[in-house]
Each structure stands twice: as C-alpha cells, then as structure tokens.
Design a protein that fits this description.
By secondary structure, this protein is α+β, with helices and mostly antiparallel strands. Helix content is about 25%, strand content about 25%. It folds into two domains: about 35-210, tt1808, chain A, CATH 3.90.1570; about 210-245. It has helices spanning about 35-50, 100-105, 130-140, 215-240, and strands spanning about 55-60, 65, 75-80, 80-85, 90, 95, 100, 110-115, 145-150, 155-160, 165, 175-180, 185-190, 195-205. The strands form four sheets. The protein has a six-stranded mixed beta sheet with strand order 1-4-8-9-10-11. It has a three-stranded mixed beta sheet with strand order 3-2-7. Strands 12-13-14 form a three-stranded antiparallel beta sheet. The protein is elongated.
Length: about 250
C-alpha cells in the first residue's frame, strides 16, 4: 500500500477523531512511561487551571496526532508520549477525543515530549516524512520538543525558531524554560510510585518544584503536624508559668 497526502473535497471529507484508529496496535515500550506521564500531568494541572479558566486545553498521553491521510490511516499519525495543546475545548461535541486530528483542529501542540526506550535514534530521526524529528519540526510543529532519556538522566529540549528546531540551552538550575507556559522542565532525582529514578518534572520560573496532588497533601499534613506540635509546646510553657491557656 502507498501513503499519500490527499486534499480535502466535498466527496471525500477528511475524517475526524471518531473515524480514525485509536492505536497502531503497539504496546507501551517500558513500564516507566505510564507513571512518568501521570507525574507530568498531575503536577502541572494547577498551572493549567490558572491559565485556562475556561478549561480549554488538551493533554495527550501516548495519543495519536494525525497529520496526513494514509493507507492504513495510523501510518499518518505520530503519538508523543506526552503533549499539551492550549486553547482547544476538552471535548468535541461532548465526545472525549480518541485522537488529535490536525486538519480538524488546526492548533499545534505547545510542547511534545518523547520518552526514549532505545538509543534515541528514532526520536532524533530527520528523514523526511518518516522520521519523528522531521515530522514534529516540519509538520506538527510544536513550539517545544523534548527528548527524555531516563537511562542517561537527561532531557534535550528544542525550540522552534523560524521553522527549525534549535537546541535550547539549560539555565543556571539545569532546567529548560518553557516560557509561554510559565514553567521549567528538568530532571528530578527522587522516588515516585515506589521507584527511585531521574524523573522528568516541572518547576515554576522561580525554580520551585511543582508538586503532585499527593505531595501537596503530604506537605499540608506536615504543616498541620508542625502547627500542632508548636501549639503543644506553647501550652506546656504557659502551664509551667502557672497560666492556663484559653480553650
């Protein structure tokens, strides 16, 4: 079978996300991809909710981005391990997206991330029409493209400038500013979901780590415990002076 880019017409309208395959039949290449995606999504939610008070944004996790019509259809899709698109509704006519179809939605992702399972050649492949790097740079065109290698505890971030990706330099914290989103991206060594690994994580532009919901709850619990202990010490000091604290 051959692949082709077909122009839209009244007789053969381009399909939408409900008419295209959800998967190419492959499976996740390593166990760490799923928790890594959850970590990125969970920790950035408060930022996105502040930036999109109308709720208009989309996060994809191993979700196909259709960029051309092919036979079979799934050959015309690329599936970043994680991506974010601003200013699109969370559902389409009340239906949750099965894929992200560029010729229907037109808005490119702001950032797309790939988690390397092999040696990284696939994620850096610039072969026209087939290489991932080429497809992201020349067709899908997210403003930022990140290649994360857990085995090397590293991430490369590229910024689209005048139609070409330029390697973004790290700042003084070793992070990569994603300025339109008001965050930095970098490597965090720590434990998440019972695994000690160099995880890919977000920070704000002041260098404060963006916490997950569980981390925020734990931080609040520790704060409450510290306040309880402080109150107990104060009560004990007052009683030592013969003063009964007010209830």
């Amino acid at each position: 079978m051959t692949s082709a880019i077909n122009p839209p017409s009244e007789l053969t309208p381009f399909p939408d996300h409900t008419q295209l395959p959800e998967s190419d039949g492959t499976f996740v290449k390593n166990w760490q991809e799923h928790p890594q995606s959850i970590l990125l999504t969970d920790s950035i939610q408060p930022i996105l909710q502040q930036r999109h008070t109308d709720g208009h944004y989309c996060i994809g996790q191993d979700l196909g981005i259709y960029w051309r019509m092919t036979d079979p259809p799934e050959r015309g899709a690329e599936a970043p391990d994680w991506f974010y698109v601003p200013n699109v509704p969370p559902t389409l006519e009340g239906v949750t997206r099965r894929s992200y179809v560029l010729w229907r939605e037109l808005i490119a992702p702001l950032i797309a991330l790939e988690f390397v399972s092999g040696n990284g050649e696939e994620e850096r492949d610039k072969t026209p029409f087939t290489g991932k790097f080429w497809i992201y740079e020349q067709v899908i065109r997210p403003a930022f493209y990140g290649i994360y290698e857990v085995s090397k505890a590293s991430v490369e971030v590229y910024h689209l400038v005048e139609g070409q990706y330029q390697l973004l330099p790290a700042n003084e914290r070793g992070h990569y500013p994603i300025t339109p989103l008001g965050v930095e991206l970098g490597i965090w060594q720590g434990q998440y979901q019972n695994a000690e690994l160099p995880w890919l994580r977000w920070w704000d532009l002041q260098g404060n780590l963006l916490l997950t919901g569980d981390e925020r709850a734990e931080q609040e619990s520790q704060r409450a415990e510290q306040e309880r202990q402080r109150a107990e010490r104060l009560t004990a000091q007052l009683r030592a002076l013969g003063i009964e604290p007010e209830a």
